[in-house]
Automatic annotation (TrEMBL):
Membrane topology (UniProt): Multi-pass membrane protein
Gene3D superfamilies: MFS general substrate transporter like domains
Protein's organism: Oncorhynchus tshawytscha
InterPro entries linked: FLVCR1-2_SLC49-like (IPR049680), MFS (IPR011701), MFS_dom (IPR020846), MFS_trans_sf (IPR036259)
SUPFAM superfamilies linked: MFS general substrate transporter
Protein encoded by which gene: SLC49A3
Name of the protein this chain belongs to: Major facilitator superfamily (MFS) profile domain-containing protein
Compartment(s): Membrane
Any Pfam family: MFS_1
Amino acid sequence: MEDVNEFRDGVIPIKPNPVLEKCIVFKVYKRRWFILFVLCLLNCSNSILWLTFAPVADHSAQFMGVTLDEINWLSMIYMVVAIPLSFGTTWMLDTLGLRITLVLGSWLNMLGAVLRFVGIMRNLPSAANFPVVMGGQTLCALAQPLVIFTPTKLAALWFPEHQRATANMIASMSNPLGILIASIFSPMIVGTTNNIPLLLFIYAVPAAIICLLATVGIRDSAPPTPPSASAESSNSEPFLEGIKLLLRNKAYMILLLCFGSGIAVFTCFSTLLEQIMCVRGYTNDFAGLCGGLFIVFGIVGAGFLGLYVDKTKKFTEVTKVNMSLSALGCIAFSVVSQMRNQGIAVAVACSLFGFFGFSIYPVAMELSVECSYPVGEATSAGLIFISGQIQSVIYILLLQGLTKPMAYSPFSTCSVGGDAALSWRVPVLVMAGLFSVFTCCFIIFFHTKYRRLDAEAQAVLHSDKQNCTPLSRHHTDNTGR
């Protein structure tokens, strides 16, 4: 028994598309949930591997005999690698399909996780530990764009119109769930620096299992019958032509710049949280708790938003309101994180920042498709991710450059010692200021029509004129799919 959802086809308002000028019955398949499940696991695992070392940066630096800046590069390599590869990834998703992209991503993720574990084995010279771990981290970084661009594409190809935002939300929020796991469990596992090998082994096992699930379980890139009118023409624009259309789209370019800045701020927060807080006397465990609250409340907020926008389609309004509130949360964190003995205030600020900030991501990805249709979903969502990665590298380097050594830091819990403690007062204020500026620009200048929804509405009207007869939503599919 298969769920069936029928839409009527019409004409895309931007460019006529003959695919949408005929009456077609659209269907949804139960196996879409399995593909979504595998994508969630893969996205979660990749983000765990991304931020494995950030919550225990000081311990990791001691274990491998490197500096904190070098440990930060284990996170930043994700951004550096993603920038040049993202264009190829968007082309791969829109041209070669979902299955090849996900299977390749799962293999790179697994091989990188295994190589990281091999890199800290005792039979290797100590000088080789960090380079080999960095090599494994680089393989994991190669997998990230293959994974993180996929939710919007999966939602468009496999899910009907009334489930797209929810499916995108579920897949997208698996990424911060991985950050949550790393934030909580890395400090718990690494009680002492001797537990770094155990940490890498534990994180490698799920990566291998997920690789098996993706390779064996995902058989098709798209369903035999599309679930919606827009899915029927998902790749209607060639890749290079789609890029040209996006560069000429004012609303999209504003979203690209402003929301990319938001992604950069969230990346800085996740990467540098432990270093920012340990100087003020907060422990690694408490920093992990704050990172966990940031993610948990973000997932909760995303759940509400996903259901809300699926019913109301108020993508723009929701994005503007939440960006404003998350900017306030970022300002609050930048102030209270520089105060001692303010654990409750810091935890509340992190929770609010996550609730309003992380929850925007899936909605903004859907908004990028709505304002850029009929450009391929991977292309429109992927360029925003590239913007976020480029700005993340710039922001992290900028914030690190603005730190100043503290001559006296008796309350520091950073295990590198008080002499090496850095003041983050100016960097966190600059981070909040940048986020606030780009949020104001987005609120003032961003306006768009929902092009994909308009195309589907015209599809219904066109098909009604042809007297197309809808099927029951509980029609039996004799194909057995």
